């Protein structure tokens, strides 16, 4: 249905949203127009596309459609089927990926608050930075 298709695109967009984090931290990049930002985008998007495509191919190759539909966590079922004793690797990998996503979100969202405070849109307390590390500690907190 159209609703399921829209939901699939929404869930897929989270997998590719990491490139958007780069837009929030361009101020901290060294020469963002010349190499850093375009290289990060041109490398990361094909890499994520490759990993997700081949992960799905592995799922469809190793599992039947009934197993895919009945599973609450496809990666865990896939791990149990193929990895046996080492199936614990799958939930740990998902947890590490989640922490990586949260790390990116915290890194960029604190910079948004910092920039907003520097421009006068938020309380000036959020525009303060750590003297030694030059990180926006109040905005991060």
UniProtKB/TrEMBL annotation:
| Record-level Gene Ontology MF annotations | L-amino acid transmembrane transporter activity; neutral L-amino acid transmembrane transporter activity
Residues passing through the membrane, by range = 6-25, 37-62, 82-108
- Superkingdom, natural source: Eukaryota
Which InterPro entries does the record cross-reference, listed alphabetically? Answer: AA/rel_permease1, AminoAcid_Transporter
Q: Where in the cell is it found?
A: Membrane
A GO CC term?
A: membrane
| Topology versus the membrane | Multi-pass membrane protein
Which UniProt keywords are given for this protein, alphabetically ordered? Answer: Membrane, Transmembrane, Transmembrane helix
Q: Which GO terms describe its biological process?
A: D-alanine transmembrane transport; D-serine transmembrane transport
UniProt cross-references to Gene3D superfamilies, sorted A to Z: Amino acid/polyamine transporter I
Name one matching Pfam family. Answer: AA_permease_2
The name of this protein is: AAA1 protein
Species of provenance = Dicrurus megarhynchus
């Amino acid at each position: 249905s159209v609703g399921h298709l829209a939901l699939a695109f929404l869930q897929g967009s989270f997998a590719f949203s990491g490139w958007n984090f780069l837009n929030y931290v361009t101020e901290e990049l060294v020469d963002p127009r010349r190499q850093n930002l375009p290289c990060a985008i041109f490398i990361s998007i094909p890499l994520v596309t490759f990993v997700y495509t081949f992960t799905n191919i592995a799922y469809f190759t190793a599992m039947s459609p009934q197993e895919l539909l009945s599973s609450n966590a496809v990666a865990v079922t896939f791990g149990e089927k193929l990895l046996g004793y080492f199936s614990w690797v799958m939930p740990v990998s998902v947890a590490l990926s989640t922490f990586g996503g949260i790390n990116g979100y915290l890194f960029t969202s604190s910079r948004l608050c910092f920039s907003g405070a520097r421009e006068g849109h938020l309380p000036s307390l959020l525009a303060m930075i750590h003297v030694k590390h030059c990180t926006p500690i109040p905005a991060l907190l």
